[in-house]
Amino acid sequence: MQSAPGRGATLTVFLPRYIGNEPPAASKVDRRRLPGGTETLLLVEDEAAVRSSARRLLERQGYSVLEARHGADALRLVEESGHPIDLVVTDLVMPEMGGKELAERLRAHRPGLKILFMSGYTAKAIAADGVMPPNTGFVEKPFTVEQLMRRLREILDQ
After folding, report:
1. Fold designation for 35-156
2. pTM
3. What is the pLDDT of residues 94-105, one digit of tens each?
């Protein structure tokens, strides 16, 4: 690193050169081999980019997706839409109403409703805080397409 007053700083990074006959293989997911379905999912995520990407991914796998920005939005959507929801995919930490409170309020009316929590916190940390209700799935962010699809299918098939 070089720095000069009034001129800024320069950081130089040296990376190893790839030596090989073939370019490194790109990781591609064959979506035709991933489990999918035709169920209706409620996707609740406060980060617009994550919500949009997840919705597109789920729809490509055949699911019908309703989406909400946070728990309060999700409750309004459920009350107004009248759509039967097979599973709720929700972030745990969101403004206004988090995923745990949302799950409790939805299950007050539909005790058997299936829930998949998503979080940047580890499953162990979540369980230690007592956030995970029984019979609820969890996927840690960031997750792969395959991890999300398999976990969804496991919960839906219970």
Report:
1. Rossmann fold (3.40.50)
2. 0.76
3. 988 989 899 999
